[in-house]
Amino acid sequence: WRGPVESGMAPRNACCLLGRRARGFYARDAGVAHRANMGLLRSIMCQERTKFKNVWTTHSTSPIAYERGRIYFDNYRCCISSIAQEPRILYQKPKSPKSEKIEDALLLECPLEETLPSPLDYKPSLLVLTAQNWLLRLSADSGEILEKIYLAGSCCKFRYLSWDTPQEVMVIKSAQNKLPATARQAGIQQSVLFHLALFQVLPLSFIGMLEINKKIFGNSVTDVAISNGVLIIMHSMGLVRLYNFQAISEKFMEETFDLGYEFNWNGQVGIVGKYPFGLPCNIKITDTPPLLFEVSSLENAFQIGGYPWHYIITPKKKDKGVFHICSLKDKALAKNGIQDMKCCSLEPDWIYFHPDMSGRIIHAGPNLIKVLKFKEVENNITQMEIAEDFMIVANRENNVDSAVTVTASGRVVKKRYNLLDDDPEQETFKIVDYEDELDLLSVVAVTQIGAEGRAHLDFHCNDRGILLKSIPLLESWDVTYSHEVYFDRDLVLHIEQKPNRRFSCYVYQMVCNTAEEEECSSHEKMERVSCKKGGRRFECS
């Protein structure tokens, strides 16, 4: 007998395909070349002579956003590319009235396996939602409007964009509908809380729009979302209920509509997606759909992941900072499934499923990061155990913070308080992220030195947690401000929000110093030291 490989047949088993790919059978495959290039970039980046240089700094009075090598200013009116050696303007649109303010945006990239109707569809584009309920698709490189869809009139205000399935199905959610004070005083009840509209992307096609009604889902509804084909309804007191959205769509959709076609809906004639009619609400839920799952969690915090499927919750308010990891199948608590860092800190620890799709869990606190994994319990195949994969520990002095100290004169001094785990004078973890193309964990750690905070970005091996490289961030880090740090291939970008709507952006790019440059740098340092000793200040360009 000869297997499918020996007999010339294509292997049908997934394990065989993965094994052949690992041994280089598909060397001409684009994915293989991309992985090889990213492996080379990772090796270069982790070399000792490779540095990250602050190439650009700017400040703004409006929020700054970053998406895939593009920095957006002035409510997405100005776009700057961060890929070149120095950031350059891609486009800058004229100022627009407040009515055209962009509420939310998503970056759209074309699928590799599909043929699209227009050549422009193969280039990245930006989906934006305006204050007047317009959905626009803009060219990511020029800002040109490629498509324009009117969503609805004054009956609802759409505010949020999200993915149901990333880069495939988009969800547009309205703000919560609220009656005017005069209507509430008159006793008028508002039963429709939210509107949701769904689109298939590239090409953009309308799937349907539905209402979330208190008469169907209950008076305690506080929020709603759709993710991975699941309708998620959040209630007060932390209750979370899940429903199968595909089943809802199939049962309650009254009619399908295509964008740009004339329709007659409730006595009105209009064009789908055009002003003033917008989109019809064609999914009418008339009774409560079958419940898939429900659970109660503090502040509706609920995550699903792992293999087999598990979820993470904090059961009650008194359990704040304690996380329970349970089986989605039967709600059974996993062995060692209660994770509690017992942090004494101003900011709480946080936990989430690892973005690398390995099924692992990242649990991060001020001085400790745990990467946890699932493994089968011996002699019990129905239960999973939470085990530690590796830990990353903050670099702190190993001094024992004793509550009692004795002075040189022999006087005994008792401390009335203990240091917090996130004490600013000790190295504290602030951000943990994952760079998928380089397979690296990035960790931002901050230490208060005198009046200023100093931060550094560390790269750790995603498999074992080994520290591979550390990059100092030159700007001061104030822990009371809001910070975002993006690590994207050979780019590090730090966005800082200060009081009174002041925003700063710091861009770092990878540079490889040659032996001559390093020698020159050391000579410059020696010159600076000698000049300082002579009483003069000297700076080399």
Uncertain runs: 1-8, 525-541
Count all strands and give the number. 36
Biggest sheet record: 4 strands, antiparallel
What is the percent of helical residues? 10-25%
Distance between the termini: 73 Å
Q: Numbering strands along the chain, what is their spatial order in the largest sheet?
A: 1-36-35-34
Query: What is the average per-residue confidence, as pLDDT, rounded to a whole number?
Result: 86
Shape designation: globular
Question: Strand-residue fraction?
Answer: 35-45%
- Per DSSP, the total helix count is 6
Which class do the helix and strand fractions yield?
mainly beta
Organism: Crypturellus undulatus
InterPro entries: DCAF17 (IPR031620)
GO cellular component, one term: Cul4-RING E3 ubiquitin ligase complex
Protein name: DCA17 factor
Structural commentary:
One of its GO terms (biological process) is protein ubiquitination. The structure is a single chain. Strands 1-36-35-34 form a four-stranded antiparallel beta sheet, with no helix packed on it. Among the domains are: 15-46; 96-296, no CATH class. Strand 30 and strand 31 form a beta hairpin. It contains six helices and 36 strands. The radius of gyration is 28 Å and the shape is globular. By secondary structure, it is mainly beta.
Task: Give the helices and strands, then pairings.
Blueprint: H1 14-22, H2 30-45, E1 50-60, E2 65-67, E3 70-73, E4 78-81, E5 88-92, E6 102-108, E7 125-130, E8 134-139, E9 145-150, E10 158-165, E11 169-174, H3 181-185, E12 192-200, E13 205-213, H4 214-217, E14 221-227, E15 230-235, E16 239-244, H5 245-252, E17 262-265, E18 268-271, E19 291-296, E20 303-305, E21 310-313, E22 322-327, E23 333-340, E24 350-353, E25 361-364, E26 368-377, E27 380-393, E28 404-406, E29 412-414, E30 428-435, E31 440-449, E32 452-461, E33 467-473, E34 482-488, E35 491-498, E36 502-512, H6 515-533
